[in-house]
């Protein structure tokens, strides 16, 4: 499924969106840095501040015209929220549970160990 971008950013309007490789609940690892996380939101193209993007060294700065993922992320020392380009993520096939404190609020684990969004309907 590819849709033409509808945006006020001329650079983005010139590119067609592509289907995100990872969906909500997918467990992923960064392809370079030692962290992993679960996807809780997806932007079809870059949607963070220009200052954030410029702070990334130019030689490793990702393209803006690709999906970007919001992760409940963790490494050996800490837990945090990460914003990562699709080009820098790979599937995490370890089967290890994530420990991030925000996971129980957003997700429940299914019988196979996958993460599924909790039903957020009002009681």
TrEMBL record:
Matches recorded under Gene3D superfamilies: Hemimethylated DNA-binding domain (2.30.30.390)
Protein's UniProt keywords contain Coiled coil: no
Signal peptide per UniProt: none
A Pfam family assignment: YccV-like
Domain Hemimethylated DNA-binding positions: 19-118
InterPro entries for the chain: Hemimethylated_DNA-bd_dom, Hemimethylated_DNA-bd_sf
Highest taxon in the source lineage: Bacteria
Entry protein name: Heat shock protein HspQ
Organism: Methylobacterium trifolii
